[in-house]
Write a structure and sequence with these properties.
The two termini are about 35 Å apart. This protein is α/β, with parallel strands linked by helices and about 325 residues long. It has 10 helices and 9 strands. Helix content is about 40%, strand content about 15%. Strand 4, helix 8 and strand 5 form a beta-alpha-beta unit. Helix 1 runs antiparallel to helix 2, helix 1 packs across helix 3 and helix 4 packs across helix 5. It folds into 2 domains: about 90 residues, no CATH class; about 220 residues, 3-Layer(aba) Sandwich (Rossmann fold). It catalyses: 3 S-adenosyl-L-methionine = nicotianamine + 3 S-methyl-5'-thioadenosine + 3 H(+). Keywords: S-adenosyl-L-methionine, Transferase. This is Nicotianamine synthase.
C-alpha cells in the first residue's frame, strides 16, 4: 500500500504533524481536542494493516505511539493529582474522562480471564500501573474482590501518587501493593502470581515489548496466565501491536478485538508447563507451535457482535 493511497493514513499523518508541533502534551483545550480527533479517526473498524504501510508511515506511527503514551501519562498524572485532593479519592473516579472505557475494558478482561481460569486468583501482578491504576482498582473493586494486586511501575513518583489514591480505602489499601521496579529486574517474585497483566505502554516498540514478554516467559510460574493489551486496524496508530507469534513460551488462548469505544485489544496466553528448551534436550529438535500464528476470526458471543475474537485453530477444532 502506498503512503498516499489511504485517506485515513493521510488524516493520521496530518494529526501527527499537529501533535508534533504542540509546545506541551499536558492536558489543555488544544491537546484534548487534537487527541480526541485522533482517537475518533482511528476508532472505526477498518481492514488496514499497519505493517504493510510504507517506511515513512511506519516511522511516523512509532513516533505517534510514543507521543500518545506521553500524553496519556500527563493525563493520568493530572487526574491522579486532582483525585488525591478529595477525602475519598476512589469515590470520585468518574471525573476521569475515560473512566467508562476502563469499566468496559476491565469487564472484558475479567470475562476473558474467567473463560480460561475457572477459579478466582489469589494474587495477580499488574506491570506498568502508572499514577492512576484504574484497571487494578476496577478489577479489585468490581470483579476480583478478594484478590491481592501487586502493581509494578518503574517510576517512583507514579507509585507514590497511586498509593495516595488507595491508602484511605478500608479494603483496597489492604489488597493493593506497589513496587517501584523495572520488571526486567524482577525474577523469582514473578512465580508468585497466577495472572500477570501487562499494560499497553510497557514496551513502546516491538523489540522492547518482545523483550519484556520473553522475560515474563522465563520467570512466570508454569501454567500462569498473561493478559496483554494490543491494538487492531487503525487503532494500531495509537498503541503497540502484540502479534501472537511474539508470545514465545506461551500458548495463546484468545485474542479479542473490541469494535466499540474500548480501543485496546485483549490477548490472553498461558505459560507453557514444559520449557521449550527441554524438547531440544530430549533430542526432539525445535518444535513448531501452530497455535501461535494461525487464528481464525469469529464474532465474540459476549457482546453481540460488538467485537471480533480470534481463536487458535486447534481450539476451534477440538
Amino acid at each position: 500500500m502506498g503512503c498516499q493511497e489511504e485517506p485515513l493514513v493521510q488524516k493520521v499523518c496530518d494529526l501527527y504533524m499537529q501533535i508534533s508541533s504542540l509546545e506541551s502534551l499536558k492536558p489543555s483545550k488544544d491537546v484534548n481536542m487534537i487527541f480526541t480527533q485522533l482517537v475518533l479517526t482511528c476508532m472505526p473498524p477498518t481492514p488496514i494493516d499497519v505493517t504493510k504501510l510504507c517506511k515513512r508511515v511506519q516511522e511516523m506511527r512509532s513516533k505517534l505511539i510514543r507521543l500518545c503514551g506521553e500524553a496519556e501519562g500527563h493525563l493520568e498524572t493530572h487526574f491522579s493529582t486532582i483525585l488525591a485532593s478529595y477525602e475519598n479519592p476512589l469515590d470520585n473516579l468518574t471525573i476521569f474522562p475515560y473512566y467508562s472505557n476502563y469499566l468496559k475494558l476491565s469487564l472484558l478482561e475479567f470475562t476473558v480471564l474467567s473463560q480460561h481460569f475457572p477459579h478466582v486468583p489469589t494474587k495477580v501482578a499488574f506491570v506498568g500501573s502508572g499514577p492512576l491504576p484504574l484497571t487494578s482498582i476496577v478489577l479489585a473493586s468490581n470483579h476480583l474482590t478478594h484478590t491481592s494486586f501487586h502493581n509494578y511501575d518503574i517510576d517512583p513518583l507514579a507509585n507514590s501518587m497511586a498509593v495516595a489514591l488507595v491508602s484511605s480505602h478500608p479494603d483496597l489499601s489492604k489488597r493493593m501493593f506497589f513496587h517501584t521496579n523495572d520488571i526486567m529486574n524482577v525474577t523469582n517474585a514473578l512465580k508468585d502470581y497466577e495472572v500477570v497483566f501487562l499494560a499497553a505502554l510497557v514496551g513502546m516498540d516491538k523489540e522492547d515489548k518482545v523483550r519484556v514478554i520473553d522475560h515474563l516467559a522465563k520467570y512466570m510460574a508454569p501454567g500462569a496466565l498473561l493478559m496483554l493489551r494490543s491494538a487492531h486496524g487503525a487503532r494500531a496508530f495509537l498503541y503497540p501491536v502484540v502479534d501472537p507469534c511474539d508470545l514465545r513460551g506461551f500458548d495463546v488462548l484468545s485474542v479479542v478485538h473490541p469494535t466499540d469505544e474500548v480501543i485496546n485489544s485483549v490477548v490472553i496466553a498461558r505459560k507453557y508447563s514444559v520449557p521449550l528448551h527441554s524438547f531440544d534436550q530430549q533430542g526432539l529438535g525445535p518444535i513448531i507451535l501452530p497455535t501461535k500464528c494461525s487464528e481464525i476470526q469469529a464474532f465474540n458471543p459476549f457482546n453481540h457482535g460488538n467485537m471480533i475474537e480470534e481463536l487458535a485453530v486447534e481450539e476451534q477444532l477440538s
